[in-house]
């Protein structure tokens, strides 16, 4: 493995604006903090060095100003209070545009989407924000295709997420792109978080009618992840959830953004991804272990969903070589917009739609970058 002292660290800036929300600031700062398993360096910055008044009674002493955006390869824009009242200062907007023009990836958490929209970089693109502010974002920036029913949206070099919890999902998604499934799993365990909720999962929006089947379906998804090598047809899954196949299929799609069989296939692909990263098993052996049967079948699904082959994926994300073969060191999942193909990518270890939390929605499309 490459020595930590000599490897190149990926550069991440977290831009703290007036009224910044503590969770939104802390999530990327903690997820990407430099450690042996994380080849990142994080700089927390503001419009200028010094004290930034935050939301919820907290303030932030930041050591860096906007020069950190010139340094960064990825810039996070945490949410902030009253985003629908006015845009960030002009110098902040200009610095964000310049960073993007240099090739930086811009990722907004929650209401940070308003600051990203102010740059004009979301015009004509899909985006999301906290469900409470989706209408305000659409009204303030009518050129943005606001999707209120997703956890996050990946449009390549611009990404947006819903409320604070979905900021974790967005960070795990970026880790998957940069370093692969195993690194994302490791980080999720460190955070004691669900390994991955796909972009296709729904945001939590208050409902008048309770959803009594939510926990039961979550248990079935968790059970399926432990039995990927076995036959997992619709009838088997519905039987485990103790509902009819018709009810299971309809509710499962509502919860996750995927049909049950699409979810199972992608769960198996994710399991194969981790085995390719962390083991020396052959493609044929992995195909059998994850329930895809043959190497030919595994190759077919890899090409359809990831746009690459298992062998090339292994070369890209094997130990010591992760992230050196694509922009931002990542690999973008491929899938159809608006459906089970999810911009949010594959669920971690099949965790498409997460492990059943009524969380906030992820996106239905695929990364373009």
Describe this structure in words.
- The structure is a single chain.
- The protein has 369 residues and is of the alpha/beta class.
- 40% of the residues lie in helices and 11% in strands.
- The protein has 14 helices and ten strands.
- The protein has helices at residues 22-31, 67-71, 90-101, 112-118, 134-140, 164-179, 181-191, 214-225, 234-241, 245-256, 260-278, 283-289, 295-306, 310-317; strands spanning 10-15, 40-45, 50-53, 59-62, 74-77, 105-108, 126-127, 145-146, 152-154, 158-161.
- A six-stranded mixed beta sheet has the order 2-1-5-6-10-9, with helices on both faces. It has a two-stranded antiparallel sheet with strand order 3-4. It has a two-stranded parallel ribbon with strand order 7-8.
- The longest helix has 19 residues, at 260-278.
- The protein starts with 9 loop residues before the first strand and ends in a 52-residue tail after the last helix.
Q: Give the strand order of the largest sheet, numbering strands 1, 2, ... along the chain.
A: 2-1-5-6-10-9
Spans of at least 5 consecutive residues whose pLDDT stays below 50 are 1-5, 199-212, 320-330, 334-369
Q: What is the averaged pLDDT score? A: 80
* Residues in β-strands, percent: 5-15%
> Care to count the β-strands?
10
**N-to-C order of helices and strands:** EHEEEHEHEHEHEEEHHHHHHHHH
Q: Major sheet, described briefly? A: 6 strands, mixed
Q: Count of helical segments?
A: 14
The secondary structure category is alpha/beta
Spatial gap, N to C terminus: 28 Å
The best one-word shape is: globular
- Rg measurement, Å: 20 Å
Q: What is the helical fraction, as a range of percent?
A: 25-40%
């Amino acid at each position: 493995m490459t020595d930590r002292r000599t490897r190149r660290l990926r550069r991440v800036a977290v831009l703290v604006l007036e009224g910044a929300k503590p969770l939104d600031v802390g999530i990327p700062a903690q997820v990407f903090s430099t450690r042996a398993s994380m080849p990142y360096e994080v700089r927390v910055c503001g419009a200028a060095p010094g004290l930034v008044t935050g939301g919820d009674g907290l303030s932030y002493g930041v050591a860096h100003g906007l020069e950190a955006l010139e340094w960064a390869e990825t810039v996070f824009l945490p949410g902030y209070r009253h985003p629908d009242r006015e845009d960030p200062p002009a110098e902040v907007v200009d610095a964000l545009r310049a960073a993007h023009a240099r090739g930086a990836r811009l990722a907004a958490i929650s209401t940070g989407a308003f600051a990203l929209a102010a740059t004009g970089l979301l015009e004509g693109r899909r985006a999301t924000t906290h469900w409470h502010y989706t209408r305000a974002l659409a009204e303030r920036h009518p050129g943005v295709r606001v999707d209120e029913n997703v956890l996050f949206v990946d449009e390549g070099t611009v990404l947006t997420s819903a409320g604070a919890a979905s900021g974790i999902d967005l960070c795990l998604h970026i880790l998957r792109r940069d370093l692969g499934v195993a690194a994302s799993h490791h980080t999720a365990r460190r955070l004691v978080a669900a390994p991955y909720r796909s972009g296709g999962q729904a945001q939590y929006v208050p409902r008048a009618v309770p959803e009594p089947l939510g926990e039961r379906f979550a248990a079935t998804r968790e059970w399926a992840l432990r039995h990927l090598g076995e036959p997992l047809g619709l009838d088997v899954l519905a039987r485990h959830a103790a509902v009819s196949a018709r009810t299971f299929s309809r509710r499962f799609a509502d919860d996750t953004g995927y049909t049950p069989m699409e979810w199972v296939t992608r769960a198996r692909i994710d399991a194969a991804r981790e085995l390719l990263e962390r083991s020396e098993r052959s493609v044929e052996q992995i195909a059998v272990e994850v329930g895809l049967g043959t190497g030919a079948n595994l190759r077919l699904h890899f090409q359809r969903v990831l746009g690459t082959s298992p062998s090339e994926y292994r070369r890209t994300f094997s130990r010591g070589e992760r992230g050196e073969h694509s922009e931002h060191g990542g690999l973008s999942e491929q899938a159809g917009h608006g459906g089970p193909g999810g911009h949010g990518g594959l669920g971690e270890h099949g965790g498409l739609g997460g492990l059943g939390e009524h969380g906030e929605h992820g996106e239905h499309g695929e990364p373009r970058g």
